[in-house]
Amino acid sequence: MAGKHKTERPVLVGRATRILVLLGGILLAASLCNATTPSENAVPSIFDPRSTQAESIYHLSRFVLAITGLIFLVVFSLLAYVVIKFRNRTVDATSEPAQVYGSTQIELAWTVIPILIVVVLFLATARVIHAIQDAPKPAAAVEVTAIGHQFWWEFRYPALGIVTANELHIPVSDPAHPTPTFLKLLSADTDHSFWVPQLAGKTDLIPNKVNETWIDSHQTGVFLGQCAQYCGTQHAKMLLRVSVDSPEEFQTWAQAEKQPANQDDREIAGKRVFERTACVNCHAIGATNATGHFGPDLTHLMSRHTIAAGAAENTKENLRLWIQNPDAIKPGSLMPAMKLSDVDLDALVRYLETLQ
Amino acid sequence: MSSDAMAIQTAEVRGAQPWVQTLHEWVTTVDHKRLGILYVLLALIFLIIGGIEATIIRIQLMRPHNDFVSPQVFNRMFTMHGTTMIFFVIMPVMFGFANYLVPLMIGARDMAFPRLNAFSFWLTAFGACLLYFSLIGGSGLYGAGNAPDVGWWAYAPLTSRAFSPGHSSDYWTIALLVSGFGSVGAGINIIGTILCMRCPGMKLGRMPLLAWLNLVMAGLVLITITPLSAAQIMLLVDRYLGGHFFDTQAGGSAALWMHFFWIFGHPEVYILVIPAFAFVSEIIPVFSRKPIFGYPVMVGATVAIAFVSLSVWAHHMFSIGMSSYSNSFFVLTTMVIAVPTGIKIFNWLGTMWGGKIQFKIPMLFCIGFLFQFLIAGLTGIMQGAAPFDWQLTGSYFVVAHFHYVIVGGIVFALFAAFYYWFPKITGRMLNETLGKLHFWLFLIGFHLTFDTMHIPGMLGMPRRIYTYEPGRGWDTWNLIVTIGAFIQGVAILVFVANLVFSYFSGPKAGNDPWDAWTLEWSVSSPPPAYNFASIPTVASRRPLWDRKHPEDPDSRYE
Question: In terms of CB atoms within 10 Å, which end of chain A has fewer, N or C?
Fold first, then answer.
C-alpha cells in the first residue's frame, strides 16, 4: 500500500503543472488581445471594440466572463480540494468510507444559487439584446444595402446612388450628432454573415429574408472582417473592409463614387476588349454598355485597395493575374479565366486602371 | 458421450472452425453483447478515419496561406469530419455500450427486440458506408467522386441543386436518413428493454443510473431524430421532385432548414453527453468507494436537462435575425439548462467528498471529464448570452467550445468507460502503464489544442475557412493547435495499441476487478451467453454491495 501512495504523487504534481501552464496560457492570451496596432487595426479582436454596438457587447462579455470566471474558481477549487483531500491514503484497503446517500439541504442550496445567477445573467443579457436590436434609427442615419454574393460583398447606398463592392465606407459618428450607418442585409445566393468584430457582431445575410444591423463608430480607421457563415468553396476569401471616414473624407469619397466612369478615350483599345468579351455579362461600368450585375461593379475599381473580395491587393500585376487565371488567387471563385492574348490583356488592364 | 466430452469436442470444433463461419456468426448475430461490440468496433474504425480528416484540416491551417489541400478538399474534410464523428463515432459507440451494459445491469438476458437490434446496427453501418461511398459515387459515377462539402449542418440553400450539383449531398442526406432509422430502432429497443426486462426487485428507482440515463437518451433519440429525418426527406423532395421547402430561388425558406436541423441538433448534443454522464455516474462512485450522492436528484436533473434541451435550439441561430423577443426567450432557456447541469457536477463532487478516491485509469479520465466539462459549460453560458454570441458564433471560439464538450467531456468519459468495462467485455485488464501514457498524452494534447483554439476565435477568425491572411494575430495560435492535434493523435494510437495488446496478453480480470456494486460484475468476464444462469433478484441500487456487506445492506436506507 505504501507503493500505492507513491504513485499518487506524480498525478498531483502533474495536475499542478497543468494548471500553471493553463494559467500562463490565459495570461498570454489576455496580453495578446490588447496588443493591437492602433493605426492599422490588423487584429480584429472582439475585445478591442470601436463602435457603440461592439462596446456594449464588450461590456456584457466582461460581465459574463467575470461571473463565469468566479464560478470556475469556486468549482475548480472544490474539485482540486476533493481530489487532494480525499485521495486514498489508508493502509487498510478493505475498510470503506462512510456511505452517504445525499443531503436535501445541500442539494437545494446548489440548485437555488445557480437559479439566482441565471436570473441575473438573463436580465443583463436581455437588456443588451434590446439596446442593440431595437435601437432607433436617427434621421441622419446613412442607409446601406449590403448584398452577399458567392464570394464577395455588394454595397449600395440608395440615397446617394452609389454602388460599390467589398470595401464599405461609412462616416464617423459624432456622439453629439450621431450619424450611424444602418445596413439592410440581403443575399443573392447562399447564406453569408456580416462580421466586423471591432464594429458589429454577426448578422447573417439569408436569401428571401431581410436582416438589419448598424454601425456607430466614433473613431476613424480601417476595420477588417469577413464572411462568417459558410457559403461555399471560397468562403475563406470573402473578406470585408470597413473604412470609417471623417465627414469630409466621406463626402469626398461619395462625390467621386457618384461620378460616371472615366470617359476619356486614352485606353479605347482596352475598353473595346472589355466590351466585346464576356466581361460585360457580369460586370457593370457606369455610362458604358456593361451592365452585368453578377460580379462587382467596376465603375470606380481603382478607388478600392483590394480585388477579389480582399484576396489580393489592387495592383497591376494582380489585376492581370486575376483576369487571366483567377484560380491562382482564389481557386473556386466564380470569375472565369478570360484567356486573352497578351496584347488584349495589357490593353484591358490599362483601361481598368483609368477607372478611378 | 458424456456432456464434458461433448463440450471439449465442441470447443475443438470451434477452435478449428473456418474464419468464414466465425464471420457468419458475427454478421448474423442477434446477441446484445456481440452487437454492442460491433457498434464499438464500427465507431473505432470511423474514429480513425475522422481523426485522419481532422489531421488534414489541422495541417492545412498550421500556417497562413498554406496549400496542403485545395479549398474544395478542405471543405469536404470538415464536412466529413463533423458528420463522421457525430453520427458514426459517438452515436454508435454510445449505442454499443448501452447495448452491452443495459441488459447486464438490469439483470436481463438480452435486449427486448434482438432482431431489431441487429437491424438497427446494420442500418447504422450501411449509412456510414453510404456516406463514404460518396468518395466514389459523389459525382454520379461519371467522374472522380467527391465527398459532401456543405458542412455537417448542410444549411440551405447550399444543398439545393443550383449550388450542389452531382450526388455528394444526396449521399450525405441518405446516409443520415438510413442511419437515423437505425438510431430510432436502437432507441426503441433501449426503452423497451429498460421498461420491460428488469429483474425482480429492480424498480425504476433502483436501476443503476446508467440505465436511467440511457432511458432518457433513447427518449431524446425518438423525439429528435424524427425532425431530422423529415428534413432530409424534404430536402430530397426539393432536389428531385421539384419541391420548394428550402429552395430559396423559388420562394423556399433557408431559416426553415435551420430550425429543423437545430431542433434535432441541440438535443443531439445531449443524446451524446447523457450516456457520458451515465459512465461517469457509475465510475466515480466505485473509485470513491461511496454510493452516488443524491440519486433521485441525479435522475431528476437528467430528465430536466432532456426536457429543457428541446427548447433551446435557436441559440445556434442568434445571428440569423430573429426578433429581440425570440432571442431573449432562447437566452433564458439556454441559461436555465445550466442549473440541472450544475446540479450534476456538484453531485459528482458530493460523491467524491469524504470518499477514498483511487486514481485508477478510469477515475483519472473521470476527473479530466469533470474539469473539462465545467469549462465547456461555462463557455456555453458565454455563448448563451446572445450579444456575446453575435461575436462568438461562427468563429473558432465555437469550434473550441463544442470540441471541449465532445472531446474534453464525452470522449474522456468514453475512455473512462473503455478502461472500466474492457475487463468485463474481454476478460482481460487494460495495461496500466500504457493507460497512464494515453491519459497524460491525450490530456496535454487536448489542452494544447482546444484551450488555444478559443483565442483565434476571439481575435476574429471564422470557422470553416481553408486559409487565412497572415498578420491578424492568428498564426501562432493555429500552429499550437496543430501541434496539440498531433499529440492527441499519438495518444489515440497508444490507446488502440493498448486495446490490441491487452486483448491478447493482458492480465486476467476475474469477475469483479474493481470491487464494484452493479450486476454486470456478478457474472464471469466475459459474461456467458444469456448473461445470467438464474435471473437475480435485487433489493437495492447496489445489489453487490448488499452481497458483500450483508451486515449493512443498502436496502436498509433506500
Answer: N
Task: List the single residue in B71, B394, B469 with the smallest CB-CB distance to A234.
Answer: B71
Residue A42 lies in a domain: no
Residue whose C-alpha cell reads 501541434 in the numeric block: B483
pLDDT score for A8: 45
Cα(A48)–Cα(A296) distance, integer angstroms: 31
What is the identity of the amino acid at A91?
A: V
CA–CA dist B332, A276 (Å, integer): 59
Tens digits of residue pLDDT in A42-82: 899 999 999 999 999 999 999 999 999 999 999 999 999 99
Residue of A1, A133, A237 to mutate, testing the B interface (most B Cβ within 10 Å of its Cβ): A133
Q: What residue in B sits closest to A122 (Cα-Cα)? A: B332
Give the ranges where chain A is alpha helix by DSSP (H). 2-34, 52-85, 104-133, 247-258, 268-276, 279-282, 316-324, 342-352
Check A236 against B71: CB less than 8 A apart: yes
Strand order through the sheet with A152-157? A162-165, A152-157, A142-149, A181-187, A211-215
CA dihedral of A319, A325, A326, A327, whole degrees rounded to 10: -140
A352/A346 Cα distance (integer angstroms): 10
Q: What is the DSSP string of B370-391?
A: HHHHHHHHHHHHHHHSHHHHHH
pLDDT band at B7 (very low <50, low <70, confident <90, very high): very low
Structure-model confidence comparison of residues A41 and B264, the more confident one:
B264
ω before A182 within 30° of 0 (cis)? no
Task: Sheet with A167-171: list strands edge to edge.
Answer: A167-171, A239-245, A221-226
Chain A contacts of B472, Cβ < 8 Å? 42-44, 224
Q: Indicate if A254 and A177 belong to the same structural domain.
A: yes
| Nearest-neighbour CA in chain B from A31: distance (Å) | 11
Q: Are residues A157 and A117 in the same domain?
A: no
**Residue-wise pLDDT tens digits, B79-125:** 999 999 999 999 999 999 999 999 999 999 999 999 999 999 999 99
Task: Tell me: do A326 and A248 sit in the same domain.
Answer: no
For a pLDDT cut of 70, what percent of chain B falls above it? 96
Q: How many other C-beta atoms are found inside a 10 Å radius of the C-beta of residue B192?
A: 15
CATH of the domain at A127: 1.10.287.90
Angle at B473 between CA B470 and CA B476, to 5 degrees: 85
Residue closest to B91 by CA, chosen among B291, B239, B269, B236: B269
3-state helix, strand, coil in chain B (%, to 5): 70, 0, 30
Same domain? A292 vs A348: yes
Contacts of B343 in chain A (CB under 8 A): 107, 110-111, 114
Q: Which domains does chain B have, with CATH numbers?
A: 23-556 (1.20.210.10)
SS3 state at A244: strand
Q: Cα–Cα distance between B91 and A172 in angstroms, integer?
A: 52
Residue in chain B closest to A29 (alpha carbons) equals: B455
What mean pLDDT is reported for chain B? 94
The confidence band for B140, taking pLDDT boundaries of 50, 70 and 90, is: low
Domain that holds residue A302: 265-352
Reading the block at residue B30, the C-alpha cell is 442477434
β-strands A142-149, A181-187 pairing: parallel
| Mean pLDDT of chain A, nearest integer | 89
Q: Which residues are registered as beta bridge partners of A193? A: A204
Determine the Cα–Cα distance for residues B285 and B267; give it in Å rounded to an integer.
27
- State how far Cα B455 lies from the chain centre: 26
Phi, psi angle pair for A240, to nearest 5°:
-145, 130
> CA of B474, closest CA in chain A: separation in Å?
8
Instruction: Identify the burial level of B242 via C-beta atoms within 10 angstroms of its C-beta, where 0-12 means exposed, 13-18 middle and 19 or more buried.
Output: exposed
